[in-house]
Write a structure and sequence with these properties.
The protein is an alpha+beta fold. The chain folds into two domains: about 25-55 and about 75-180, 60s Ribosomal Protein L30, Chain: A (2-Layer Sandwich), CATH 3.30.1330; about 185-350, Phosphoribosyl-aminoimidazole Synthetase, Chain A, domain 2. It is built from nine helices and 13 strands. α3 (about 100-110) packs parallel to α4.
């Protein structure tokens, strides 16, 4: 790789990239030496700056006092811990990129456990040859996603693999959140009579990825719904124990998420197709591609299964939020057909919505 003198990649970026001698990531950037130090300090530390990360320890030291200062009752709260890896292709897609997807995805996994996200870690596996400019854009989007979610990136790792041994970049994020006293979210708490609330329309993310991958064009742009669900969690907390289950319907989509819950809780579910919102362009794309939107991933939606007596109140709360303005009660939990999801169709018939046997769209998150 030919060395270049002081390349400036600031054009078109909201924050100018630090000048670099290299246009692409080299194997040496993962070797632990000078280039590694420069990459980490100039690109990562400069943007993920906080008191815990700046210690530059092999582990992040996170005092419990910091949680108390943030308003948590440490003695009566519980910790939630999650991890996920992101291998989406392409790494830039309509509405987002792999960086913000990684932060939002881990934040949302904590949120649907009833936890307020506090800290996350980031692991980068970068293929030799990735443009430094692309890496910088990813870092900036992660910084902004963390800011919106109120989380701090407190530790991480960087590895570089040989060209051809990866696919530009993979990202792993792990997260820690705090569950306040009185919140008890578990699929096993789902029971007959509960209402099923969906926060908005489905399948945008998966079709945005597919349209970018396949070069499909539509009259109205289809963009990913990737977003942090923090505002919806704030609505949830006031209802406490009345919130039984939450889930973000990512891989496998709405259908797979509901089937998983029904099986774990040994209950049935009846959902109404007319109440499930799908963008017309998404419906059209699914027809062209032979896909069912019920099984397509979402990255900024939430399912809440709640006690019947608070369902309308929660729906009203969600509709006052940007991410919940299209929320609907889409069905209910039943004592019939245990472990099965049944859908009332738009023509009035009923059909079983099975768990998908494979992956409709590979590498969408």
């Amino acid at each position: 790789m030919k060395q270049k003198d002081e390349i400036d990649f600031s054009s078109g970026l909201s924050c100018p990239i630090p000048k670099s001698d290299y246009e692409h990531v080299l194997l040496a950037h993962g070797g632990g030496g000078t280039l590694s130090h420069q990459l980490i300090s100039k690109l990562f530390f400069s943007q993920f700056d906080n008191e815990f990360l700046n210690e530059q320890h092999d582990s992040a030291i996170l005092p419990l006092l910091s949680l108390r200062q943030a308003g948590f009752n440490v003695d009566k709260s519980k910790l939630a811990f999650t991890t996920d890896s992101y291998v989406v292709q392409p790494i830039f897609f309509p509405g987002g990129n792999i960086g913000e997807l990684a932060v939002n995805g881990t934040v949302n996994d904590l949120v649907v456990a009833g936890a307020k996200p506090v800290y996350i870690s980031v692991g980068f596996i970068i293929e030799e040859g990735l443009l430094i400019e692309d890496l910088w854009k990813i870092v900036l989007s992660m910084k902004e996603a963390a800011r919106k979610s109120g989380v701090k990136i407190v530790t991480g790792d960087t590895k570089v693999v040989d060209k051809g041994k990866g696919d530009k970049i993979f990202i792993n994020t792990s997260g820690i959140g705090v569950i306040k006293e009185g919140i008890n979210i578990s699929p096993k708490r789902c029971k007959p009579g509960d209402k099923i609330i969906l926060s908005g329309r489905i399948a945008d993310h998966g079709i945005a990825i597919m349209s970018a991958r396949e070069g499909l064009e539509f009259e109205t742009a289809i963009v990913s719904d990737t977003a942090p669900l923090i505002d919806l969690l704030d609505c949830i907390e006031k209802f406490g124990d009345k919130i039984h289950v939450m889930r973000d319907p990512t891989r496998g989509g709405l259908a797979s998420s509901l089937n998983e819950i029904a099986e774990i809780a040994n209950v049935g579910m009846l959902i109404d197709e007319e109440k499930i919102s799908i963008l017309d362009e998404v419906k059209g794309a699914c027809e062209i591609l032979g896909l069912d939107p019920l099984y397509i991933a979402n990255e900024g939606k939430m399912i809440a299964i709640v006690a019947n007596d608070i369902a309308d109140d929660l729906l009203k709360e969600w509709r006052d939020k940007e991410l919940g303005k299209e929320a609907e009660i889409i069905g209910e939990v039943t004592s019939e057909n245990s472990g099965t999801v049944v859908m009332k169709t738009t023509i009035g018939s009923k059909r079983i919505v099975d768990m998908i046997s494979g992956e409709q769209l590979p590498r969408i998150c």
